[in-house]
Amino acid sequence: MAQTKACSPICQYFKCAKNSVFCRRDSAWCRWTEEMCNVANCTYALCVKRRLLPRGICGETVKRKTIEKAPEEVIGHTIKLRGKALRKIGERELF
To answer: What range does the domain containing 41 cover?
Structure first.
């Protein structure tokens, strides 16, 4: 899973919303456009696992990046209240 891979119509989780993809020899063919199926440009391409990203990239091959914030950064902010929350609590700013 080092590199991202493009989704292909041969994948078991790929689905066409128009049900117009069929296999012709060694490639997938689209009956709707009468050309080879291009997942990156097709608006009807779906993933059963909901992992299809823009430009036809498979989400199963993408590694996530998480950013952890230090507790000092979170505590330094104040929250200003307005409306119903202000009436219930009675203070204009919290923390």
So the answer is: 14-61
Q: Return the residue matching tokens 């979170």.
A: 74
Structural domains of the chain, count: 1
- 3 state DSSP class of 84: helix
Q: Is 0.85 topped by the overall pTM?
A: no
Which amino acid, residue 53? L
Is the residue at 84 inside a domain?
no
Q: What angle do CA 1, 21, 8 make, to 5 degrees?
A: 10
Q: Which long-range contacts (CB under 8 A, 24 or more apart) does 26-31 make?
A: none
- DSSP state letters, 8-68: -TTSTTEEETT--EEEETTEEEETTTTEE--TTT-SSEEETTS-EEGGGEEGGGPPP---P
Torsion of CA 39, 44, 45, 46, to 10 degrees: 170
Q: Residue 39's closest CA among 17, 24, 61?
A: 17
What's the pLDDT score for residue 4?
81
